[in-house]
Amino acid sequence: MRMILLGPPGCGKGTQAKMLIETYGIPQVSTGDILREELSQKTPLGLEAKTYMDKGALVPDGLVIRIIEGRLKKADCKGGFILDGFPRTLAQAEALEKTLAGMNLEIEHVLSIEVDDAELIRRLTGRRICRQCGGSYHLMFNPPRQEGRCDACGGELYQRDDDKEETIRKRLIVYQSQTEPLISFYQKKGILHAIPGVGSIDDIKGKILRALSS
Ligand SMILES: [Zn+2]
Prior knowledge:
Elements: E1 2-6, H1 13-24, E2 28-30, H2 31-40, H3 44-54, H4 61-72, E3 81-84, H5 90-102, E4 109-114, H6 117-124, E5 127-130, E6 136-138, E7 157-158, H7 165-188, E8 192-196, H8 201-213
Helix pairs in contact: 2-3, 2-4, 3-4, 4-5
The structure holds zinc ion.
Zinc ion binds next to loops.
């Protein structure tokens, strides 16, 4: 079971990734996690990546793909893996395909969790933070008892710039412009499953499991 998990920020991908790990007993391979591990172990690839990160630059695709290749060759990926956060662009998808072909492997399923922008914006702009104690709330999922006030300390709640609608909209636009070519790339291969990311966690899980067994 070798798969890629795609979905915009706020689509609930993390929750479904955990479900897939448990259901299929395969690891989640996230570029962020592997990079952090390579950095902490000071591997040659990790140190190379660090030279870019220290400059505030993106780690180039060629290097990311070498790091991923190393991870996919580990024993726990024998039965499959869930790629999360990579590929993000068409160029990365093509590089991944080449790398996997060199290992006699290919991606079998691409799950794209789809949620419309209005809903994503509602989910992503709902976070409020307490100025005094740093406590975190969400207007939809974990609202404070009294509007605008922290339950724990009575401090004023505020919205971080990262959580403001304008910032969120920009992130979603970037996501969509990068991901659309990726989606059609996998659609043409006949391995894309579009999963509506609305309803309960169990509803979405059911849709994913049905797609994977079809
Ligand atoms: Zn507080």
